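Notes from the 1:1 (GR / supervisor)

We went over the backlog. Supervisor wanted to see one worked example end to end before approving the batch request, so GR pasted a single chain during the call. The sequence is below; no edits were made to it. Supervisor asked that the structure be written out right there so they could see what the output format looks like.
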Amino acid sequence: MKRQLPVEFIFQLFSLIIGIIIIHGIYVSIVRPNATAILEEQAIQINANPDYVPERSPYVVIRDFEQESCFILMLWAMSLMGYKALLATRERSVMQLDLIPLSQGTSILPEDAREYSRPVQALTQVQQSFLLPRALLTALHRFRSTRNIQDVSNSIRAICESESERLDSELSMIRYIAWAIPSIGFLGTVRGIGQALGQAHKAAQGDIAGVTQSLGVAFNSTFVALLISIIVMFLMHQLQLNQERLVLDCEDYCDNRLIRHLQT
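Structure output shown during the call:
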């Protein structure tokens, strides 16, 4: 764990920087130039034809700074979730190994615990830090020292519960991002409404272009932020479901491959 924390922090930092560079580059080179050209074209069409109804362009909808920030946070959250999903996949791959080699009808006695722990200890240091090897080693050592099957079962359950709590706590950053995205959208709404109120005197004189544009900023930022929040929350719940299944599968593995074969 002490070796993984700095690596994860560095990954979070660099993924945020890369997300900012990618999204800002797309906005500067593609989104904002196209949105400006579309708005100028629509302004010309409106002046030439009062009955002209401008179409809703995606470039115009996502052109403001609030939407750019939301996309940066979405890309950052996806990178964090991808990293944790990769770790869960690596842990699940250990379950495909025959860590407790047993034939049909074989029982494990307390004196045999050290012998059966050797395949687990032969794993790499990174693999031994995964949930399943830690649970198996703890269970075998507990069985060898206490000779009590109930103590073995309780130790496995305690390790799995602590791992579940750890995985849940590590999702706090992703939860914060999922909360921050709609909040940024509401900030755009407040900014747009404030700009519209500041141009109310022009609307009273018949010029409503500035008011409508400011209201467009308000509604577009909220629309984009809520849409992105739905996507991020869906992916986060899928990741959490995958992690919970990993812990439950580890408990089932220990029950079926170890505890049911223990005998005092």
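Supervisor's comment: The two ends are 34 Å apart (CA to CA).
Batch request approved.
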